From TrEMBL:
Function of the molecule: Bifunctional enzyme that catalyzes the epimerization of the S- and R-forms of NAD(P)HX and the dehydration of the S-form of NAD(P)HX at the expense of ADP, which is converted to AMP. This allows the repair of both epimers of NAD(P)HX, a damaged form of NAD(P)H that is a result of enzymatic or heat-dependent hydration.
Note describing how the cofactor binds: Binds 1 potassium ion per subunit.
Protein's UniProt name: Bifunctional NAD(P)H-hydrate repair enzyme
Location of the YjeF N-terminal domain: 10-212
Binding site for K(+): N64, D122, S158
Keyword Transcription (UniProt): no
UniProt-listed Enzyme Commission number(s): 4.2.1.136, 5.1.99.6
Species this protein is from: Sporichthya brevicatena
Record gene name: nnrD
Alphabetic keyword roster: ATP-binding, Isomerase, Lyase, Metal-binding, Multifunctional enzyme, NAD, NADP, Nucleotide-binding, Potassium
Length: 494
């Protein structure tokens, strides 16, 4: 599990560790030196040959600039030609600057050095930043980006909000980010995540002082195969009986895809309730589904419901949604179900509810536009979780899952390939089965998002779970359903 902490928690942990270090001896800037050593090592690895490499530091007025100066000093000692551009010369980190000068580093008088740099260190601002880059910094960053050297962000790309990933105005686009002590939520959540490039973590010893994380991202080993599969006594109820209420005359395919996602999530049984022609389409595609063309209340007992994909928003759809929401088992609401829920202003449920909107649907739930949601994904997902008393999975370039309380989950397997019609229907079925198998909504949602992204990657490139933009070939929602068993095998082998 990759864990991220809030700025407040990082600062508290740093203060506690510094106090401990003072009691046991070492003096000033110990943590900064640990950070700088990790940073300089990462830069050396990127450069390949440090001797005679041209490195430029962009140095702001806080400790983030101090990290850059100490790392620059180490690179200068190894023979690199290091120039520092000080954004605020009177307020640059004094001891860092002295160390830098002492190692042969130069303070540059002109931004021209950026045009020839092999590597530029962004030490403008770190976790102490607020808002986007100021105009003078933005101008230097643009020149650095045009210069073509590798851009390495110190702790996080300047201009990205460390707690939320929000970017208000200009921000650095890093090739690599070297972060210290723990991940920051803003490195995992878009738009911040897409400014970070390849990100790595340098341990500076904060471990014992850090509280529970603010956000986590699953890795293969965290995705547990549902225990019911592994038991010799496994029966269909232990694996989960999930009910799917989806599809309409216009969108029968949504029902087929949601049922497919539910079956390939390992459901013990999928019950489907939908109108005649939709029920026929589901029967034809999935003979193993137990199908009724009646109402959800006539479908038989289930352990969780999925409601909404392609459902429509007419009177019949409303009735179906109301029946499902009245039940006392976990319910996942998706797509048209969310539109109807937004119109109703919520529901009176006490059993767990999982909402799976994209930005447009989340906007409807909160009466704001999709652009506002995209710009502040975590903030809006949190707001919807509080307003609807539900766990919210917000789909998008980085899918986030926000439970009513506890750490947020950020999905690392997302790929632009998922942005295809019907892919959300598959996710809904998949997460619904995991709910029916007894998973907490946050785990069901995070696990489903993880497998869904992995399946899309494997569908594009069977050997390439790591493949993303580079792998050839488009992927359809049906391909994602077909690749789900391979995704399970992949995580089971981790
Ligand atoms: N506190 C510690 O013990 C450690 C801190 N470390 C480094 O210290 C950083 C935090 O240092 P600081 O608390 O000094 O804060 P920063 O260096 O992140 O930034 C604070 C300064 O930037 C200015 N500023 C704020 N927003 C700005 C913007 N948008 N554009 C331009 N300037 C802006 C502020 O006026 C302030 O002077 C971390 O990100 C990390 O790089 C590391 O060395 C590890 C140890
Ligand atoms: K930075």
């Amino acid at each position: 599990m990759r864990t991220a902490h809030s700025v407040a928690d990082v600062r508290a942990a740093e203060a506690a560790l510094i106090a401990e270090l003072r009691r046991t001896g070492p003096g000033e800037d110990v943590l900064m030196n640990r950070a700088a050593t990790g940073l300089a090592t990462a830069c050396a690895g990127l450069l390949g040959r440090v001797y005679a490499a041209r490195v430029v530091l962009l140095v702001g007025s806080g400790d983030n600039g101090g990290d850059a100066l100490y790392a620059g000093a180490q690179l200068a000692r190894r023979g690199a030609r290091v120039d520092a551009l000080l954004l605020n010369p009177d307020r640059a980190h004094a001891r860092g600057l002295a160390a830098f000068r002492g190692a042969g580093g130069r303070v540059a008088g002109d931004a021209e050095v950026l045009d020839r740099a092999d590597l530029v260190l962004d030490g403008i601002v770190g976790i102490g930043g607020s808002g986007g880059l100021r105009p003078d910094a933005a101008e230097l960053v643009l020149r650095a980006e045009l210069g073509g050297g590798l851009i390495v962000a110190v702790d996080l790309p300047s201009g990205v909000d460390a707690d939320t990933g929000e970017v208000v105005g200009a921000a650095v686009h890093a090739d690599v980010t070297v972060t210290f002590g723990t991940w920051k939520p803003g490195l995992l959540i878009d738009p911040g995540a897409s400014h970070a490039g390849a990100a790595t973590l340098v341990d500076i010893g904060l471990g014992d002082h850090l509280p529970d994380p603010a956000a986590c991202a699953l890795q293969d080993a965290d995705v547990l195969v549902p225990f019911g599969w592994l038991l010799p006594t496994a029966d269909k109820y232990r694996r989960g009986v999930v009910g799917v209420v989806a599809g309409s005359k216009t969108y029968p395919g949504a029902a087929v895809l949601a049922v497919g996602g539910a079956l390939r999530a390992g459901a013990g049984m999928v019950r489907f309730a939908g109108p005649g022609r939709v029920a026929d389409a589901v029967r034809a595609a999935w003979p193993e589904a137990v199908v009724t063309d009646g109402l959800p209340s006539e479908a038989g007992r289930v352990q969780a419901w999925v409601v909404g994909p392609g459902l429509g928003t007419d009177k019949k759809a409303r009735r179906r949604l109301a029946e499902v929401l009245d039940s006392d088992v976990p319910v996942l609401v998706d797509a048209d179900g969310l539109t109807l829920l937004a119109e109703a202003g919520g529901s009176e449920r006490s059993a767990p509810t999982l909402l799976t909107p994209h930005a447009g649907e989340l906007g409807r739930l909160l009466q704001v536009g999709p652009a506002a949601v995209e710009a502040a994904r975590l903030t809006h997902a949190r707001r919807a979780a509080a307003r609807y008393g539900a766990t919210v999975l917000l789909k998008g370039s980085t899918t986030v899952v926000v439970p009513p309380d506890g750490p947020v989950r950020v999905n690392p397997t997302g790929t632009p390939r998922l942005a295809t019609a019907g892919s959300g229907d598959v996710l809904a079925g998949l997460a619904g089965t995991l709910l029916a198998a007894g998973r907490e909504p946050v785990d069901a949602a995070a696990t489903a998002a993880y497998l869904h992204g992995l399946a899309a990657r494997l569908a594009a490139e069977p050997d390439g779970a790591e493949a993303d933009l580079v792998a050839p070939g488009p992927v359809t929602a049906t391909d994602i359903v077909a690749a789900l068993p391979a995704a399970w095998r992949h995580v089971a082998g981790a």
